[in-house]
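Thread title: Can someone regenerate the structure for this chain?

I was given the following input by a collaborator and told the matching C-alpha cells would be attached. They weren't. Posting the sequence so someone can regenerate them.
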Amino acid sequence: MGRGKVELKRIENPANRQVTFSKRRNGLLKKAFELSILCDAEVALLVFSPSGKAYQFASHDVDSTISRYRNEVGMTESSTGDFRTMEVWKSQLDELQRTIETMEAKERHFAGEDLAMLGMKELKQLERQMRIGVERIRSKKRRLVAEHINFLKKRHKVLQEENTRLQKRVKLHELHDVNGSSTISETDALDTFHRSDTAV
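Best answer:
Regenerated them for you:
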C-alpha cells in the first residue's frame, strides 16, 4: 500500500515543527547535492530556519552563482538594492507573523484549548507558567485589598473626626439656646416688678 496523502499545513506544535524542519532540511540539502553530482548542475540552496538561522549548499562559489542568477534575470544594482530591501521587510513581516502565531497559540493553551498537540514537556512547562501566573494574580489581589483596606481606614478616621466636630457644634448651639432662654426669663420678671410698683 502506498503512503496516504499528507495534508500540507503549518505544524502547530513547536517541537514537532522543529523535528520536521530538521528532517526536511537535511533531505533538501541531500537532493541538491545529488542533483549537482548526477547532472553536473550548478546549484545554490539557501534555507532559513524559523529562528533565522541560515543553512546553505553550493556546488560552486555561492556569490558567483547568485551573481550569475542576477545577470540571467536582468537585475541591475539598483534593482538588487530594492530587492534586498524587500527581502528585509518580508523577513521582518514573516518574523512578526510567526511571533503573533506563537502568542496566539500560547493564549489558546492558557485557555485550555489545543492541548492535544502538546507533549508532556510542553504541558509541564505550561503548568509551571500558569502556576507562576496564578501566584502573581494572588499577589496583585492581596496588594489591592490591602490598599483598599487602608483607604477605608483613612476614610473612617476622617468621618469620625467630622462627626466629633458636628457633635461639638450641636452642643454649643444647645448651650447658646439655654443661655438665651434664661436671659429672656429674667428680663420678663424685671418688667413685671416695675409695672407693679407703678400701679401702687
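DSSP finds four helices and two strands in the chain.
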